# Entry
Amino acid sequence: MKDAGSPHRSCQQKRRQIAGQGIHTVGVLCGILVAVLVIALVACAPAATPTPVPATEMPATPTPTVAATPTAIPAPTRIVIGMSIEDTITYDPEVAYENSSIPVLHMMYDTLVTYELGDFSEVKPSLATSWDISPDAKTYTFHLGSDVKFTSGNPLTSEDVRWSFERLRNIKASPSWLMEPVESIEIPDPHTVVITLTQPDVSFLSALAGIPFSVVDSKTVQAHGGADAPDADQTDTAREWLTQNSAGTGPYMLVEYVPKDHVVLVRNPNSWRPPGIDEVFIQSVPESSAQKMLLQRGDIDLAMDLTPEQVEELRSDANIVISAGPSLQTAFLAWTRSPEINEPLSKPEVGQAIKLAIDWEGLQALIPGSVQMPSIVPVEMFGSLPLSEGPTTDLERARELLAQAGYPDGFTATLTASATMSSAGVRVSDLAEKLQSDLGRVGIDVQLELVETGVWVEKWRGYQCEMSVLVFVPDFPDPANYLGVFNLVAARVQWTYEDDLLDLMNQAAATTDKAEREAHTQEALRLVNERANFVALPEARLFIAHKANVKGVVPEATYRVSPQFLTLE
Amino acid sequence: MAVYILRRVALVPLMVLGITLMTFIVSHMLPASPESAMLSLSALSHPEIVSAFREKWGLDKSLPDQYLFYLRNLVRGDFGTSRTSNRPVTQDIKQYWPATIELATSGLLLSITIGLPLGVYAAVDRGGRLDSAIRVFSLLGASVPIFWLALITILVFYHRLGWAPGIGRFDPRSAMPPTVTGFYTIDSLFARDLGMFWTSLTHLVLPSSVLAIFQTAYIVRITRSGMLEVLTQDYIRTARAKGLRERTVLYRHALLNALLPLISYLGLAYGMMLAGTVVIETVFAWPGLGRYAFFGTSRLDFAAIMGVTTVLAIVYVLVNLVVDVLQAAIDPRIRLGG
# Structure
């Protein structure tokens, strides 16, 4: 506010006048201020008076003040999990395919076979107690356990399996393509399911362990509008019901879901493997730093989404235990092979130089706890190459290769990536910046183009990226999934798998002999290492931080943690 | 005045038409497509999944057809189905908006309670030490990044001191009030449960304080400058010359006149609080409209975006109508409908 000339003086006079009446005015205003403060304090009293302890301040012993089921005489035990459920769209197991819905669905549904407690080396029985695979790896026969019941009390039959899988195929949602290898499903009796594939594929067993192949109670879901016919994408109306209810055989059942707020699951009364804790309460906490503080205050028992950095800060806390396991989450750097999009990048020598120019140790430090990737398949998985075959850093050699390719002074390339995506708590943009500075050391001038995820996907799908960083989480933990999906990734950067590589993949898929399959897989991965115009960045580690009284926590990649194995002390 | 109010309300449908059309055009100009925002990369390479998706959500129709279809449903009060929640947008909004209104209202009340007296005091003490302190506070309040402020508030008042609950609308370890209105504070009173009322009130403290700090800063500045302008007017000198008590001069003669710009700002501020709380809602895990709209935007969920925009616009118009009526009531010189 500018006062000019005389008004200025008069203004000052006025101010002096007011100041003259100062004591009086100040007194009145102080009174008002005090009154306001009192009102404000009444409005937010606990901020000033910590004496009345609200429920949140209670020590987090598993003795809930209020029982959700008033009839239960020993108070039910409840675990409170802090987690981001921001991207959850539905809890319909045959439609959902989001990071945050999979761990929750894992509590409600079972699959025919499963991977247990983070062990990705072997598929274990679940609803199917045993199975036979025909020597040509085309026909799978599953024998269901008896006495398995759904939450409704309906017994599990082979018809439920058939119906669920047909619904998965015909609802034509994000995970529906997983049914593509299946030619037919026969049910000779209520306890036998025979699945025939269009071509040999031993990795199908691994796919069956995934959440989309959850078996739902066909009678109950049909009663709520579910359909398995070929036009299910138009006629099925069960999604909404399945988002608020569950119809599975899993240890828990869904009783309440308030989007972006919380999820309540209670013990499935008919569970064939009862969990140790009666109730699971998932509190939506989108911000991971808030999850950390809630855990330290004891308001949540377990935090699902802490970043590696936040985990480091918790190490000194005696009341908190950190469990770590493989995340199977990996970022990849890919670059084009098309001379029209970027001529230097299309040269094979330049590709070799890029792999040698990356500071692999520095990258590992950037993703705390991460493990080097020996190929596109993480080291924990069946068929993986030994760590020693992973990429190395050699700047001299990189410069030589660039000179050989005709670019002794380097060149310019644009790296397009999502500004918001992250891989196991590490932002893709941070990785992109690191790669930019690494490649800059050998003269490759990388321009970053960080955009909204949707915009990036569109450019990537349109085969237009010069360089890009993408995040990959396997659809099922088998090398066949990696090799298959990276055939699609390769197409985005103008590489097509050569016939010898495809032959190796087909041979690996067609053999039921484990050693032979491993040999073919490793051979294929070596070819990819040699030829690919993409390279895997270190695999992030999955950390689950929880209170010391929570026992049995084993981080399990996409499921994160299986509450049926947890107990509270 | 009744005519004026009626005319303003009658303009709402026209405005909704304009808003939906604008939102529709803007969201379709983005260089991204709904299927790539919603489907996994593997699913995108399967044409039958992509075409089923486009058909299910009416994306196979031409853009004008899509818009007309939307309008036809809107007339029947149907905002369409949200792709990111698989349920009607009306149901989504019904769930999220009490949380947002509860937060914005308590935030606004808090900022008025604090900002108004501070503004008056700063004007009276112009150039004084307290004035400087208040001005520094209001400058800080307006310029501090809200994300940082929210995290620091949780860190200090929840994590370190434990004075108030950190996040969420309610305590995960206790039973929630049965839903009547969706406003937890009101529902817990309906349930005649003071404990629940207390819990829901304490959960409001930190998020509404952060929201309030930002707005308080503006309210202080507007009150201060309004008061300064009024205090130089002749009628104030006349009032003083008549020998009126300073309190009467300040609050009856000066503040009442200085309130006019403030009230019109409050209308704007309330609108800003309703729509602009995404950051606070995210940090405090507050399940409100802001987060819903933000996620909807990132997934190109047009029905959700247009539904939220329309509802907020209507609230905004109504709030501003109230503001206009209030101004006319305070200042007899303003004639509505004239």
